[in-house]
Records
---
Amino acid sequence: MTLPAANAAAVSQTLLPAELAAMPLALTLVESSSTVVLRQQAARLLQSHLGLALAECLYIEGSGRWLGRDSDNVQFDCADFNHPYAHVIRSGKPLTLSVADARIRLDHPGFQAQLAPLTATSQLHIRPLRAVDGQREWLGALLLVGQAATLTALIDNPGMAAYEALLCRLWSRLAREQGERQRSQVLQDSLTKLNDGARRQALADQLADDLLGQSVAMQALRRHVIRAAETNLAVLLQGETGTGKDRVARAIHQFSGRAKEPFMAINCAAIPEALLESELFGHAKGAFSGADHARAGLISQAHGGTLFLDEIGDMPLALQAKLLRVLESGRYRPLGASEERCADLRLVAATHQPLRERIKQQHFRADLYYRLGQFPITLPALSERQDDIAQLAQAFITDFCEREGRAEMGITPAALRQLYRREYPGNVRELKNIVDYACAMTPEGADIDAYVLPGEQQETAGQPVVSTAEPVALALSDDIDDLRQALRDLESAIIRQRLQRFGGNRAQAAESLGLPKRTLAHKCQLLELDIK
Ligand SMILES: Nc1ncnc2c1ncn2[C@@H]1O[C@H](COP(=O)(O)OP(=O)(O)OP(=O)(O)O)[C@@H](O)[C@H]1O
């Protein structure tokens, strides 16, 4: 050691006042990052610097009902006087007793376990720790174990009072900060959730322009679409024909991060089996007779975007296996090509068929079904969301008028009631066709009336069975089991036709049927054909 360094060491050992010598200890406490670290440091410093047998900081749990240790899960109930901490906390005063005494008088099992390694001649000194500032009254208790003389000297030392005050100040400040951090984290979390919720709701509202309907089922559907759009999961759309699966598939693409990339769609039921593979996977030049050029398939064209496979239930089994490979490995091989290509796309598949049934019949691969259905969405049938009929009808009327350059038109309550009463096996598509037809049949400047609505549909092809202006063919069916109803239906059909023939002019229709105009109006009202 050089001379100046040796001098410095001597100064630090001998000449420093006690206050300055204690600074490193204070600094260790001040640097504690949490209340747990602070308690551990405070006890460790006391134990190691004062030669105590044990020093420990116990904390009072938030409810104030029990004291705990950082080293284990033992709880010391503040109302249980079988350990000394309850006495100290209740009285607010320090307590000193011998280990020997404590072993006999206080039989709390956790406390007895604390005493076990201590010698009987040692003394226990327990001090309550109280917050010097802030709201928390009691922080915990400090347990010191050592020889009686050491403890007495320590308790009387003003340095110990300062040490305890520093410990309590730091403890309550850290507790406050930790609480604030926790509260602000909770606030932050709920704000993030709120923002996420608000952002999703705003997107779902935006989607309402495209996927019409205010029913609970439609609102839930729109929320699902937004959620699905946020992910890259494969989406399986299931629902009856005409429920809007195609629309939903496009919406998922438009609201996704892939919106600027291509959206490619194919109907697996509409393409001959032999062509479907090359449509999807593409082919190399000369892959089969007639393949004069290499051709990119839809998988390649959808790169970066979305591939929509409609009527997936009709995909041949051999192709299902290849599609599964694309989904699992992201790779595919065009027909006749020697090398594999990479596919980066989101798949949306749709079907109106019960795929589980198709799996049972071994027409559909179960593994593909589960891979496709990472995000399953079921579309509600129109019968499950009848509340939406009026809004859909009005939107289809507006579309029709814009398309055909016609003046705005409305719909009479009677016509609307008829729309509500119908069944729609073809769902929204069928409703749209009916409204389009009714629009075409409604005279310029008038509202759609019940008499222009086509008759109830006989088949489920999604097309309305339109009545013509020709005389009604009286189908005297053997099925008639309610003569009055049959007559009402016939009467309604005749009046409807006649009104149609005269462009809704009730005076002419009444005259042609040999009825007074008032009688016709009354019948129309009864039959809910026209309430004007
Ligand atoms: N929520 C909706 N809002 C507005 N139009 C809708 C809605 N749902 C369906 N449509 C309309 O109904 C018609 C049928 O919809 P779409 O083709 O999406 O049904 P789909 O379920 O794919 O039918 P399919 O199973 O027969 O292929 C389309 O004209 C579509 O625009």
---
Amino acid sequence: MQQRIVILGGGPGGYEAALVAAEQGADVTVVSREGLGGNSVLWDCVPSKAMIVSSVAMGSMQTASRLGVHLEGGVDLSGRARADIAAVMDRVRLLGLDQSADIESKVEAAGATILRGEGRLAGPETVEVETEGGGVEVLHADAILVATGSHPRRLPFSTPDGKRVFTSRELFALQEPPERLIVVGSGVTGAEYAQAFAKFGVDVHLVSSRDMILPSEDPDAAAVLEGEFERWGMTIHRRRRAYDMEVDEGGVRVKIGDKDGGQEEWIEASHALYCVGMIPNSRRMGLEAAGVLTRPDGAIPVDAVSRTNVRTVYAAGDVTGGIMLASVAAMQGRNAMYHALGMAVAPLRWDAVAACVFTSPQVATVGMQGPDDDAANGPVDTIRLDFAGNPRAKMEEATVGFVKIHARKGSGTVLGATVVAPNASDLITPLSVAVHNRLTVGQVAQAFTIYPSMGGSTAEAARQLMGLATAAAQ
Ligand SMILES: Cc1cc2nc3c(=O)[nH]c(=O)nc-3n(C[C@H](O)[C@H](O)[C@H](O)COP(=O)(O)OP(=O)(O)OC[C@H]3O[C@@H](n4cnc5c(N)ncnc54)[C@H](O)[C@@H]3O)c2cc1C
Ligand SMILES: NC(=O)c1ccc[n+]([C@@H]2O[C@H](COP(=O)([O-])OP(=O)(O)OC[C@H]3O[C@@H](n4cnc5c(N)ncnc54)[C@H](O)[C@@H]3O)[C@@H](O)[C@H]2O)c1
């Protein structure tokens, strides 16, 4: 009998699941309150990365003269480049809509139905949808996937108005570059946006609650980025939290202090952007009535094949409160469908997740991030090779980064890596393949790389780790 699948949410967790289930012949309905692609495509990943592309172009104009490129008559481009923020935001919005339309066509072509509206569970096998047209539809399912994503956390005083005060959701309403921007929060969102605006020429003040920005990343990588941020003129307020805010016609004032509220001061700017985390979308969705457990932070706990505590209900993506990445959401969504449809499924490998912070340089990581990351791995050898000696990096003026590899002592199995480079999101791929397939540093070292390339340093770092293993064995 054809299995009936109802998916709540059309982000990567939802639409990737829909593709898999429809391709397997299930009767699939995706309930989505906005275009497919969800927050990922319309508000988060796609727009932020598209905006960063524009900021990198602006940055290249500032440094072009060092590469011997200038305007006719020898006029230096730096200082003459201007960002048309309205045009940037327009491009960003259109790219998101275009990508969303592509996904909708793909999902429909696979045979799934898209129902625009707000869904909620009316039981473990029933979903009620308030449709866009104002009616209510009741859908019966053999399996339900909850993939409703997350929304930006607000501080009690930080209500965004889309004019002077923003979270990542209102930001694209900007029509003029801020004169001065306070970015609160130095996690991935804060770091990416702070640097993008600094490159657009905005005077950025980054409020960072810890000793270093990007507390979840490799500290060496965070140190490189802090250097770059300050080189672009950004002010980092370290070990400071935002405690209050005042807004008027003239601008914003944010009260910052240390973690105990001491060393209080007000900093002023024209605009403020809050990047203080994301909260799973699980409220008012009938989860309790359907018997689905949630944690106090709203996340729905799931196992490695995306099962909740209720047999017919699966969950995927940000709503599960795991590592909030589009790729993880997609993998969880696909796993849920493989399991629900009785197919073979490999449990999600949390030890092999790859991620990238899209700053300049980018910081890409895979697997373990340091010897203390996972004691179960036993002793670990780590090597860091700076790009300073790499010929390609010199040509590209990209020498501040590095490649770092962690491998199990003795066997040389690659357990994790960090790459800091302009194209780290691509350079990490061979190391991600190595971690996923448990390859050794010897296998990575012996593969051909291109000369001259940044990737050459990956093989070189692996060779140096092989050397460590050989020395230990003698
Ligand atoms: C600024 C920013 C940049 C990011 N950049 C990256 C990046 O570069 N790479 C990366 O991997 N990750 C990135 N992320 C994280 C990534 O966006 C999320 O991990 C990803 O979107 C999660 O996908 P999802 O399918 O769980 O949900 P979402 O993409 O959040 O989609 C969920 C959808 O469900 C809808 N929905 C919610 N409730 C209901 C309901 N009751 N009925 C119907 N529909 C509903 C929502 O409106 C939304 O459309 C970024 C996050 C932010 C905030
Ligand atoms: N490139 C990417 O893949 C990408 C980009 C952006 C976001 N994301 C994902 O989205 C999720 C959310 O990212 P995020 O950066 O919004 O959240 P986060 O939770 O990673 O970081 C938020 C930061 O804000 C700080 N903070 C909280 N309250 C504060 C206050 N009052 N004053 C100052 N600082 C305060 C926290 O200490 C924390 O460091 C993450 O899981 C991230 O992986 C991914």
